[in-house]
Automatic annotation (TrEMBL):
<protein>
    <submittedName>
        <fullName>Phytanoyl-CoA dioxygenase family protein</fullName>
    </submittedName>
</protein>
<dbReference type="GO" id="GO:0051213">
    <property type="term" value="F:dioxygenase activity"/>
</dbReference>
<keyword id="KW-0560">Oxidoreductase</keyword>
<dbReference type="Pfam" id="PF05721">
    <property type="entry name" value="PhyH"/>
</dbReference>
<keyword id="KW-0223">Dioxygenase</keyword>
<dbReference type="InterPro" id="IPR008775">
    <property type="entry name" value="Phytyl_CoA_dOase-like"/>
</dbReference>
């Protein structure tokens, strides 16, 4: 990890925004060249799934894509993003989940049906005994297509809803909850969001395909949410990337980590000591 990455460290204003609203938008996180580099393997995967029989009118949810191309792997510890992730969650983290989503044009007329609003992590939201629910993890969404206008399969959110355990949904199945907004961003934008933020996918009423890569970071004692078949990448990765890919000395190291389990902690002690004791 190059110390130059600290120019992208989480600022106090960003921390305040994330804590209050539950999300953070970083424009131009990816350059046009990076967007092009990532889009090529994304399109190849999408085309192969269509050849295998995926319905052209429905969204493709494809997890465990990291091993498919080196450009996906390079985002695991991306210098513009990871410092903000550890700035929010601390050093005992790893990539517990990753998935890509392609949302093609639906071919349907625009309507006012209520979207599928939810918080991430499934049973966690029913079985954790606290209020508000614990943060535990966050996701970073990298947008590869232009969704700067509504109606393009936009990700919808309710700012500040990460501190609410319940959401009032329309009983007649029409309309969205109070305060709901679409996330409208250009290609290359990264959106960080708290797993507790109430959010929803929406239909794509446009003529372009929405393309997004999601990277989920959580504490190392959280189980992976998909197969994450990345173990063969450990040997060729530097220590901090190995940590992000789930490497550990032993099982207890997930709960009581040594320096060998969490090289990020050692690195931060030297380069960003104000975070070391958090």
């Amino acid at each position: 990890m190059n110390p130059s990455c600290l120019q992208y460290a989480l600022t106090e204003e960003e921390r305040r925004t994330f804590n209050e609203k539950g999300y953070l938008i970083m424009e131009n996180a990816l350059s046009p060249d990076q967007v092009e580099l990532l889009t090529a393997p994304f399109d190849r995967i999408y085309a192969s799934k269509i050849q295998e029989g995926h319905d052209l009118k429905t969204a493709l949810f494809y997890p465990n894509f990291i091993p498919d191309h080196h450009s996906f792997l390079d985002l695991v510890d991306y210098e513009k993003i990871l410092p903000k992730v550890w700035g929010i969650l601390g050093w005992n983290i790893y990539l517990y989940h990753a998935h890509m989503i392609a949302t093609p044009p639906s071919g349907q007329e625009k309507n006012d049906k209520t979207f599928g609003w939810h918080q991430d992590s499934g049973r966690v939201n029913m079985e954790m005994e606290s209020h508000p629910r614990p943060r535990l993890s966050l996701k970073v969404a990298y947008f590869l297509s232009d969704i700067s206008e509504p109606g393009r399969g936009n990700f919808w959110i309710i700012p500040g809803s990460h501190l609410k355990d319940n959401l009032e949904i329309s009983k007649n199945g029409k309309g969205q909850p109070e305060g709901a907004i679409p996330v409208c961003v250009k290609p290359g934008t990264a959106v960080f969001f708290d797993r507790r933020l109430w959010h929803a996918a929406s239909p794509n009423w446009s003529d372009i395909t929405r393309k997004v890569l999601f990277y989920g970071y959580g504490y190392r004692w959280i189980r992976t949410k998909d197969d994450m078949t990345v173990q063969h990448l450990w040997e060729s990765s530097d220590p901090i990337r190995r940590q992000m890919l789930g490497a550990s000395v032993n099982c207890n190291g997930h709960y009581s980590p040594t320096d060998a389990d969490v090289p990020l902690r050692t690195w931060l002690k030297e380069h960003q000591p104000e975070l070391f004791d958090k």
